[in-house]
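User: Could you go from structure to sequence for me? I need the amino acid at each position, not a summary. Structure tokens:
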């Protein structure tokens, strides 16, 4: 039983990843005369969403990525949003597109996401990207699951053969997280709001990924001694989905909140924007072509 687990510091890895993205952006601009460009779309005036988009744009700018912001009123319907996304998909000066979630209950979000050209889906939200994460091939990972995989790799966490529990089944976090772990040969159980005996599932897990948006849902006493705990939740008061103090008494490794998963989400978005920019250039220029989906 651990009383001093290793902290999986996503903020430190994100700093290194962002520095690498900045170097790549500089090289790309030097070789092509073009700056990698990320278009962001915000529907409505939700303060939290607006703040999050601005933060992403500031970090993109620091990494040498140009941003183009599109504000749409809350009254925007599915047709108008799809037309906006399609126009950006057709724009050769745009390399990546981020459609901020949520977009409003009156909008068909899946249709809007799928209007993003797969080669510009740097947030990994389209059906094509999910297929690539599940089946393999060229595409982009959903940013939070992709960031978690990078974090696990960085700290040398063995995923192959591990009994893994993913708590949450959202199409941009839980489901793609499970798909990426399966591709790494983990044995994956996906738990959700209808799961019976959640504590029993968690107690058998070598790796727990909590992504439900419920503060401290996962109790410390549920954690298997020596397990690795990834808390992808963020709730008011800087509280995650895991009882950090309790889990720290049993886990061998654990992500802090904040400073764990969150910074890796944005770092992955920026890195994949550079990937998209590089892939947009003909291979004869010497710039890298398309890359397989991150596992």
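Assistant: Here is the amino acid at each position, in order:
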């Amino acid at each position: 039983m651990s009383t001093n687990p290793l902290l999986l510091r996503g903020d430190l890895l994100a700093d290194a990843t962002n520095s690498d993205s900045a170097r790549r952006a500089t090289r790309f601009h030097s070789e092509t005369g073009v700056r990698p460009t990320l278009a962001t779309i915000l529907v409505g005036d939700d303060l939290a969403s607006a703040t999050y988009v601005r933060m992403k744009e500031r970090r993109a700018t620091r990494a040498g990525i140009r941003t183009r912001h599109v504000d749409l009123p809350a009254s925007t319907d599915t047709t108008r949003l799809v037309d906006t996304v399609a126009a950006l998909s057709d724009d050769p000066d745009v390399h990546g597109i981020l459609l901020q979630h949520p977009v409003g209950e009156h909008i068909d979000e899946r249709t809007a996401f799928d209007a993003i050209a797969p080669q510009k889906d740097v947030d990994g939200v389209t059906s094509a990207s999910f297929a690539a994460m599940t089946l393999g091939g060229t595409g982009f990972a959903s940013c939070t699951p992709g960031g978690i995989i990078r974090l696990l790799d960085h700290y040398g966490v063995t995923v192959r053969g591990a009994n893994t529990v993913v708590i949450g089944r959202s199409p941009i976090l839980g489901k793609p997280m499970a798909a990426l772990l399966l591709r790494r040969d983990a044995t994956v159980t996906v738990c959700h709001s209808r799961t019976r005996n959640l504590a029993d599932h968690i107690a058998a897990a070598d790796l727990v990924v909590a992504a439900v948006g419920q503060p401290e849902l996962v109790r410390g006493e549920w954690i298997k001694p020596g397990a690795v705990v990834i808390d992808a939740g963020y709730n008011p008061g800087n509280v995650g989905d895991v009882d950090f103090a309790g889990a720290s008494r049993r886990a061998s490794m654990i992500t802090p909140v904040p400073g764990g998963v969150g910074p890796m989400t944005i770092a992955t978005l920026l890195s994949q924007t550079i990937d998209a920019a590089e892939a947009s250039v003909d291979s004869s220029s010497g710039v890298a072509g398309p890359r397989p989906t991150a596992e």
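One structural detail worth keeping in mind: Residues 283-290 have pLDDT under 50 and may be disordered.
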